């Protein structure tokens, strides 16, 4: 029976969530190309109506050559990369068993339409609380020129054990 990315066999071979996995790293194997329409859709979905997220002239007036992405736009790539990190390291936490508890973002450069973003991940800490594994993951987002555009951390709680067990 499949559970997200994992089959039952993969669950039985999963890395035990022990402090030994702190420090694991991962580079998401593909880039995420930031699309103009994705920016507009995301900005509308989060009800951010700043003109620079929709209009080239508004972005140009701010000194940018393309529309800008809202500050939390990176969450689209972030979740994909985090789930791939778990799968790569055989950590049996799936999206449906995950709750975000905390997040911090440091913006170093604006994310713009046309950027090709790469995500570098490191498992910063792990502890067990209230029946859940609480992980802090740090990410570094770079663009097509290798420039760091954002650094962030997210703390999440996830369940790794089978609900029946």
Describe the protein in words.
The chain has 165 residues and is of the alpha+beta class. The protein has a domain at 19-34 and 73-158: Thiol Ester Dehydrase, Chain A (Roll). It is 21% helix and 31% strand. It has four helices and six strands. It has helices at residues 8-12, 36-45, 56-61, 75-88; strands at 25-27, 32-33, 98-107, 116-129, 132-142, 148-158. Strands 1, 2, 3, 4, 5 and 6 form a six-stranded antiparallel beta sheet that branches. A hairpin with a 2-residue loop joins β4 (116-129) and β5. The model is unreliable at 1-16 (pLDDT under 50).
Highest CATH level, the class of the domain at 19-34 and 73-158: Alpha Beta
How far apart the termini lie comes to 15 Å
Q: What is the correct CATH architecture of the domain at 19-34 and 73-158?
A: Roll
H-E string: HEEHHHEEEE
- Alpha-beta classification: alpha+beta
- Under CATH, the homologous superfamily of the domain at 19-34 and 73-158 reads Hotdog Thioesterase
What best-fitting shape do the alpha-carbon axes yield? elongated
Query: Could you estimate the helical fraction of the residues in percent?
Result: 10-25%
Q: Report the sheet-strand fraction.
A: 25-35%
Largest pleated sheet: 6 strands, antiparallel
Question: Could you give the count of β-strands?
Answer: 6
Uncertain segments are: 1-16
What's the mean pLDDT score? 86
Q: What's the tally of helices?
A: 4
- CATH topology call of the domain at 19-34 and 73-158: Thiol Ester Dehydrase, Chain A
> From the alpha-carbon coordinates, what is the Rg to the nearest angstrom?
18 Å
């Amino acid at each position: 029976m499949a559970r997200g990315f994992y089959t039952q066999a993969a669950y039985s071979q999963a890395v035990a969530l022990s402090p030994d996995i702190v420090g694991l790293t991962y580079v998401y194997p593909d880039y995420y190309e930031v699309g103009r329409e994705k920016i507009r859709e995301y900005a509308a979905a989060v009800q951010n109506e700043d003109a620079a997220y929709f209009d080239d002239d508004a972005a140009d007036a701010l000194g940018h050559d393309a529309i800008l992405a809202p500050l939390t736009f990176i969450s689209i790539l972030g979740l994909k990369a985090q789930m791939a990190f778990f799968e790569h390291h055989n950590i049996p936490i799936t999206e449906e068993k995950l709750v975000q508890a905390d997040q911090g973002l440091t913006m170093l450069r604006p994310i713009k339409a046309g950027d090709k973003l790469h995500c570098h991940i490191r498992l910063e800490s792990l502890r067990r609380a209230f029946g859940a594994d609480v992980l802090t993951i740090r990410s570094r987002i770079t663009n097509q020129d290798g420039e760091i555009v954002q650094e962030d951390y997210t703390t999440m709680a996830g369940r790794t054990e089978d609900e029946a067990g």
